Each structure stands twice: as C-alpha cells, then as structure tokens.
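Protein modeling request. Please complete all fields; requests missing the sequence field cannot be processed.
Requester role: graduate student
Desired output: 3D structure, token encoding
Chains: 1
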Amino acid sequence: MTMQALNQLVARSIIDPTVVDAYSGGKISDVLSLFDFSADMRSQLSGIQANTWAEYAIQAYGIVKVAEEQVSRITLPSPLEGLLPEKGSADKEQVA
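Delivered output (96 residues):
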C-alpha cells in the first residue's frame, strides 16, 4: 500500500505544483499526511535531504521499496492447506 501512496504522491506532483512548492518550502510532511503512509513512513520520508524534487522522489522510492520488501518476507500458509485432499491420495489403497 505504501508504494501505491508514493505513486499517487509523485503523480500528483506532476499535475499539482503545490506538492513541489511544499517540498521546496520544507513542508512536505503536510502533503504526506494527505496520503496513506504510516506515521513511521511519513517520518522517514519527511527526513529525506535532497536538492531537488526528483532526487527526493528517488530516495523516497528506495525507502518505500525496502520497507515493502521487509513486509513481504512474511509468508503465511494458505487457508486451504490441509483442507483439500492431496493429489493421488484417492488412488492409494487404504487399510482399516
């Protein structure tokens, strides 16, 4: 979800000059609060030091990508696991 929020932020910056103006004025945290970033992510993104909006967007992408990779490492089993019969088990002979 964070990458989607970053995409929305960058897309909005293309059509809305107030986003870049807010960044230039040191008020990017006000703009970030309009998007679906967690408080921790907003804090990290607000602390980025860059000379231009393009550099900021590149650094923000790197931070968001690392955060999403850490979240995606958690792998949960499928709810269907153990409920569906195994393939080939119906063919096996069963003894009572």
